[in-house]
Structures are given as C-alpha cells and as structure tokens.
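Q: Hi! First time asking for a complex rather than a single chain. Here are the components, and I think there are two in total. Is that enough to go on?
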Amino acid sequence: MTTLPSKKGIFTASVLQNRGMGAQFFRLSLELEKRANAFFCAASAGQFVEIDVSQLALPVEKLIPENLADSSQRNILLRRPFSFADIDSSNDCTIIEILYCVLGPATLRMKTLKTGDTVNLIGPLGNGFTIPEEKKSAILVAGGMGAPPLIHLAKVLKKQHQDIEITAFVGAKTKNDLAFFDIKTDKLKKKPDITLHQFAKHNIKTFISTDDGSAGFKGFVTEMLKNRLGENKPAGAETIIYACGPEAMLSATAALSGEFKIPCQVSLERLMACGIGLCQSCAVKCKDKNGGDVYKLCCKDGPVFWADEVIWE
Amino acid sequence: MKNKNIDLTVNLGTLKLINPLITASGTCGYADELDDFMDINQLGGFITKSITLNPRLGNDVPRIVETDSGMLNAIGLANIGVEKFVQEKVPLMERYKTPFFVNIAGQTIDEYVAVAEKLAQCKRLAGLELNISCPNVKKGGITFGTDPALVRQITGEVKKVVNDKLLIVKLTPNVTDISEIARAAVDSGADILSLINTFTAMVIDIETKKPVLANRTGGLSGPAIKPIAVYLVNKVYNEVAKSAGVPLVAGGGVRNASDAIEFIIAGAAAVTIGTGSFVNPDCAVKIIDGIEKYCLRHNITAVAELIGCLK
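A: Yes, that's all I need. Here is the structure of the assembled complex.
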C-alpha cells in the first residue's frame, strides 16, 4: 500500500512569490529547475523537501521580532524540512508551495526571500500518505502548523476519488494561531467566520477549535473529533483518518483511531540533520513484527506512519 | 573534468586511494544511501557507520540539535548489528570499486574482538576503523579512547584478529594530550590513525532549564570545530604519525575543497567528510574537483606532495 520512495536529488528553485499571510504566516511558491520535473512528477502528499537557508539574509534589525533577536544571531548550518502544501508538476514545470510560520532563525531568513531569488533544495523526500481505493470518507485532523500537507492531500484525494467525502478538523491555541485561514468577522453573528479556502474550494466541511475558545469549539481538536466520531460512528472499513500536528495531538488522534476502529495515518515531525537517512537523528519508536521496539526514521520510513505502528510515549 | 596531469592518489598503508576523499563514519550510512546524490566510485574510500556485535536501537530523541555553525549529535551507535550487516550490507558493496572500511564499536574488548573477527572474514572490506571515541554511549566508546593503557590493549587485541585488513584507530579530541593516545595506538599495531571524533558538548534550553538532547550531552561537529581539528591533526602528525610513517585520515567540519586542503597541509593523507554530507550530500565529489583546481593553480602535480607540507 505504501508508495515507493521516488528518486531524490538536489535542485535549485526560483522564488515565484513569498507572500505574508498575517503577521507570522507565509506562503512561498517555488519553481524548480527543469531537471527536477522527472523527480517531482510522482511526488505524493506528505512528502517533503529540505531547503538550504544558510545563505539567506536576515531581515533588517528593526524587523526582527524581539523573541527571535538572540537566536537570529546564530549561523545556520543544517537544511530545514518542509512538506508541500501543494505541488504542480508536469513534464514542463514543477511548482511547489510551502506554507511556513516564522518561528526561529531559519524561517526568519526565509521571510526575506523575494521573487526571482533562488534557493537550493533536496527532494522529494520520505513517504507520503497512502490513499486506499475502498474508502468513502476521509477525516483530516490538523493541529497548529499541521495543515500544509493535509491541504495537499485534500486536493489529491478529490482528484483521485471524486466522490470521497472529506471532513476537516483544525485546531490551534488561539484564533491568531490558525495558520493560513481567512478570518472574517461577521458583525451580525459577532463570531469570526473562519474558512480555509483550499478546503472550501473542495467542499470540505471544516470544524475549528481553539484552546482558548477564541474561535470555534473551545478545547483540543481531538476532543472535538471525539465528540463528532461519537455522534456519527463512521464505519472503519470505509473511513480513514489523516493527521498532522504536534505529537500530543497525534497521540490522542491515534488513541481515537483505536477506540473507534478507524485506520489512521499520521505525519510526524522530528529534528533532522540530513533528511535522507544518513544521520539517524529523526528516530521514531515503532513496534516491530515480533512485538519488540524498533526505531524507524522519520525522514526515510516516514514522515507518514500508520498510527498503530508508532509507540506513543 | 579530470586533468590527467594531476595525480590525486594517496597511500593509506598498503592501499592506494584514487583520491583523498573519504566519508566519515556515521554520516554516510552503511553503503548505498548516497547513491541518489553521487557516484560512490568517485570516492577515495568509504567508512561505514559504527557496527556493534548486537543490534542497537540508539538513544531517545531529540538526538541532534543545531549550534552556531555546528551541531550536536547523540545517536548512541544505532545500528543493525554485525550479523545483519554482513548478510545485507556487505553484498551491496560489491557494486562499487571503492575501498570500504567498517567502523566497529563495543562495550567490552571482547565485543570489539568478536565484531572484528567476523568482519575480517569479509573479502570485500579493506579494513576496520576502531571507534574508541564515541562520546554518546554509557559503556565503552570514549572510555577506551581516553586511557592509553586501554588503547594499547584494545588495539593489540583487535590487531591479532584482523588478518590482512588495515586497522584504523579513531581518536577522540576529548583528552589532555591526543599525541599520547595516538602513540599508544601506533605502538600496539594501528596501521592508520583517524581523527577527530566529536567534542563532548551540551546545549541547554533556557526555558525548561534542561539539556536539549535526551542523552543530555552530545558530540559537537561541523565547521565550528574545524580550526581545533586542524590543530590536533598537525600536532599528531608532527609528534607521532610522521616519524612512525603512519598515515592520518583526518577531518572535522570539512565542507569544501579549501577545508580539505587545510587538513592535507596539516598532515592528513586522506580527508573525511562528515557533517558536510548532511548539508550537501554530494559535497565529497565537489571537493575532489576543487582540490584538482587548487593543484593546477599551485603547479602541484601530485596531491600527495601536499601532505604535511605546513611551513
């Protein structure tokens, strides 16, 4: 069922657009050199690229947020992994979209990329989400910065299975942390109307939660998911859950997948030095065939794993 | 494009390498992981990641953290164990012409000897690299490499079982006098010395007041350590290796041809690429081109002329 890892390579990419979406979130569109087309045309949702940001300039001092002032002084050595929020690849052209949030010295540098700049990246890396033929409905669960690969997945699911019913559950700490969402306040309802247009355009019903209740359901996204699964009791054979977000959220989603007997795939995140299986740093503790523990690599064996193969701690 | 007038070969004991570039243990996988990025046949040599008698899961995560121009790792010698390595990975090496060295590690001298005995039977291998310098395991590793008496004992015992294989001993920089350790290794049978392994180091998360790495400490590598590595290589070359006629395989933060040439001038016969491969997996091959260009520019006909030519 797992897609075979595609051949990977090192490529240069030129920036088509690097647009801010609110204070912290950015959308980076990259066009890859032609040689990359053969590598990326079969790339799947959930795969990622490692971008070299070591050569990128910092913003001018006054534009560096106070919380990043110290870490911005650090020289960057390692590439940074990003899953794609979209990829458009043909024989002629490959364009990838990366959604990122300025969180540290690397993404702070990415913010300064301008149209026409070039970056160097390695990809496509890892194994993406599995799309089984027999499923009639898919549940997407995104926490914090987990939305991008699920946005890509939603597009692929709709393309491959026109009839598949997709529901999305999206959670964040507060309304302002809802990455990449268009927030409009409806004055009559006095409640913010939040949509993710990438989901909306595929008619995906989206349920929002925030830890502080500033938008949508107050509480964790997994609590909201649990309520919903309890009400609807979807058939496990016909349904699949795809999740991406913080580890605690994924662990809770995995538990729900077990409780409601719905297969679930999770996209994990690890600190990684190389992204190509050399450094062994991105270990994920999994069950082996004989019931023992085995460390798999997030970069090579993942980042997408079946929820029931991971040992959640 | 190869310039036929420049001789890039270097000698490591009885072995002639086509050029001085070698992958450093623990940064290049077991054999074929870099295939998508380079032709392994273009390398002077290949040193695999550490192999132990039994498989090891390795340390908990986080296992790495980036530092200023460097990184800390505490992988904990995660590996598939010697049996599986011989069955599954050694056959992969048949595809290449490159000389392969296997880095070996253990918790006791008996374990090192047992691994060495098994690998000595593999015709495909050019030699073994004795890892007595891993800072990230609780037993073995660096405990051997910081005590000259233990270095003598372990090198001597392993030497007895490696038959015709070349024996490299990899030194740790975490000692007061690296030359004393180097001398102990050479006196007890090391054919080649490699240096340096990583520096024991720590990064603290000031919000949680805890070390970032699950192992608390890790080994510092990358460009941050390069000047110290160059100094230590030159020290061992002058004080031990040159007079003993023992070649040095050296590195620490090498990421381009200039870095590699520095190590050769300091006394290295071959240069290892470690952390550099994480950032640019094809960097070893690019460095070979760069060394050739340097030789052309300096009217050097053989790269071996550069070894230890520090004025």
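A: Residues 59 and 174 of chain A are 27 Å apart (CA to CA). Let me know if you'd like any chain examined more closely.
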